[in-house]
Amino acid sequence: MHASGALHLDYVSLAEYQAAQWADVLGVATFNGAPPASATTDRGGIPVARVSTPVLTDATHVYEVWRCGEAPESGQHDRVSYRCTGEMLFGCVTQPELPGGEHPPLQEATLEAYRQICATLNARNYPHLLRVWNYLPDINRKSHGAERYRQFNSARHQVLRANGRPLSGCVPAASALGAAADSPLVVYFLAGRTAPTFVENPRQVSAYHYPRQYGRHSPAFSRAALLRQPGSLTLFISGTASIVGHRSLHVGDIAAQTHETLANIEALLSEANRTAPGADFTLRSLACKVYVRRPADLPVIQAQLNRALGEDARVVYLQADICRQDLLVEIEAAGMQPLAAAA
Ligand code: 3EB
Questions:
Q1: Do 327 and 242 contact (CB within 8 A), yes or no?
Q2: Rounded distance from Cα 186 to ligand 1 centre (Å)
Q3: Would the CB of 221 count as within 6 Å of ligand 1?
Q4: 176 lines ligand 1 (CB under 6 A)
Q5: In Å, how far from its chain's centre is CA 318?
Q6: 266 within 8 A of 342, measured Cβ to Cβ
Q7: Which residues pair with 173 in a beta bridge?
Q8: Distance from the CA of 324 to the center of ligand 1, in angstroms?
Q9: Contact indicator for 84, 90 with CB cutoff of 8 Å
Q10: Can you list the alpha helix ranges (DSSP code H) found in the chain?
Q11: What is the pLDDT of residue 19?
Q12: Are strands 46-51 and 41-42 parallel, antiparallel or unpaired?
């Protein structure tokens, strides 16, 4: 087990997954493009989020494994499978689209998923959402007169508001990506009993303050969230793209978009290091998930990331549509850092 209580993240292959020790696993997400199996738990109730986004490198299956250094307890709250410690909860919910409701089917599914998440956090008493991963089938398509990402934003907004949760400021770090057209909505998340601090990017307008041209309900997420635990700091960097101010830059230019995205991540690291006592995060220490719209762009992106992060960095490449049609790449990251007792 890793240091007791401290979060730890690994990306492992199927073989490593099958050989792994499970005692301190909090939750798992798997990315393989295979038809989603119905089960959302594995090995004695470990929640497994099955996401339909093809893996672009040699391995065909990637397992994202979150560990916590102690033995968590498993549970199920309605449709949410979860595992938790005294401090933290990992949960996942898989929600097929719901036709026949007042709103379009994806919007109804998002309402349902977020209601379930809020109900779980309320029932188990983990008030602080730290990090949320959202995978929406066909994210860029328009249906029922609205782009599906906007339907998602409206529903997320509506449920957070109905639960008395903030819509700006203290909102979780997040990613929202496209998944295979016929897959369900998959949302997984980390929540805690201790409030994190949130970090915004000085180069970007906060997403919750995006102007109306991007949708009536702005996306409720922070650029990064920083969790302080005894002896460790964890930085969750949201999905980050080639956006400066609120505009997409370098339309059609994958090299320039990748460069701008890395500049945004570096700006977030500086901001975290500047504001959080004891923080000293570097690009090379991050574990990254890279979402690539067009598989043919992979070599260009990979060459740039190898240069910026080093060849041994923990980086996973997935094919996924990005929430804006003009964006070709998005990168999310997590950093873990031990902390001296005095900090
Ligand atoms: C952006 O910066 C790119 O809606 O939860 C990134 C991370 C993006 C999270 C979300 C959207 C979300 O606006 C898109």
A1: yes
A2: 16
A3: yes
A4: yes
A5: 13
A6: no
A7: 131, 222
A8: 9
A9: yes
A10: 14-19, 105-124, 148-162, 254-275, 298-309
A11: 76
A12: antiparallel
For 236, the enclosing helix (H) or strand (E) is strand 232-240
Type of residue numbered 169: G
Which candidate, 266, 248, 187, 185, places its Cα nearest to that of 221?
187
Amino acid 118: pLDDT: 98
Name which residue sits closest to atom 9 of ligand 1, judged by CA: 175
Separation of CA 337 and ligand 1 centre (Å): 25
Give the C-alpha separation, 322 to 332, whole Å. Answer: 12
Instruction: Please report where in the chains the tokens 């990402």 appear, as a residue.
Output: 149
Task: Report the nearest-CA residue for atom 14 of ligand 1.
Answer: 323
Could you report the average pLDDT of every consecutive run of 10 residues in the chain (343 residues)? 77 82 92 64 83 88 93 96 97 97 98 98 98 98 96 98 98 98 96 98 98 96 96 97 98 98 98 96 97 98 97 94 98 94 54
* Residue found under tokens 């994958």: 254
CA nearest 81: which of 49, 122, 129, 33?
49
Protein residue with its CA nearest to atom 10 in ligand 1: 176
| CA 293 to the chain's CA centroid | 17
174: CA distance to ligand 1 center in Å?
7
Atom of ligand 1 nearest to the CA of 223: 7
Collapsing DSSP to helix, strand or coil, 26 comes out as: strand
CA-to-CA separations, 130 to 30, 107, 264, in angstroms, rounded:
20, 23, 20
Closest to 199 (Cα-Cα) out of 130, 153, 135: 130
Q: Among residues 64, 200, 271, 330, which one is catalytic?
A: 330
Assigned token pair, 68: 């916590």
Q: Smallest Cα–Cα separation from 118: which of 94, 91, 152?
A: 91
Question: Radius of gyration (Cα) for the chain, nearest Å?
Answer: 18
Q: Is 64 a catalytic residue?
A: no
Dist. CA 266–CA 268, nearest whole Å: 5
